[in-house]
Amino acid sequence: MYHQVTKADVDRVLAWGESDAPSEVPFIPARVILQDFTGVPAVVDFAAMRDAVKALGGDPERVNPRCPSDLVIDHSVQVGGWVGVAQERGRKGREGRTLDCRVRKY
Q1: How far is CA 26 from each of CA 9, 12, 52, 70, 102, rounded to the nearest angstrom?
Q2: Residue 40: phi, psi to the nearest 5?
Q3: What is the pLDDT of residue 11?
């Protein structure tokens, strides 16, 4: 599955510019770090591919990135409070929105 970089691959890199012959050097990163803007769509794509493979009778566990990948979410998810506090804030927020939507008397 993976190609081991050989001495010949390294020699081609060192001789770059000396020849017009096209050459390729295999490169697979050790790890990929994705920010939320690009990482979330990638995670969604993997989830969709796994669902499709499962629907076709395949093993969804075979659908994985070729190298370890980390998803970094720096600002998109914020914690507003723990369960009890969040529930109370949510209730008050709904009440405020409900009051705003009522018919006002003039």
Answers
A1: 8, 11, 30, 22, 65
A2: -60, -45
A3: 87
Task: Name the more confident of 63 and 82.
Answer: 63
Among 3, 26, 2, 25, residue whose Cα is nearest residue 15: 25
| pLDDT at 106 (0 to 100) | 43
pLDDT at 45: 92
Q: Tell me how far apart the alpha carbons of residues 69 and 31 are, in angstroms, rounded to a whole number.
A: 6
Residue whose token pair is 């499709």: 52
Largest CA distance in the chain: 85
pLDDT mean across residues, the chain: 77
Residues ≥6 apart with Cβ < 8 Å to 59 = 53
Question: Is pTM, for the whole model, over 0.70?
Answer: no
Question: CA angle, corner 104, sides to 103 and 105, nearest 5?
Answer: 120
The fold of 7-101 is Aconitase; domain 3 (3.30.499)
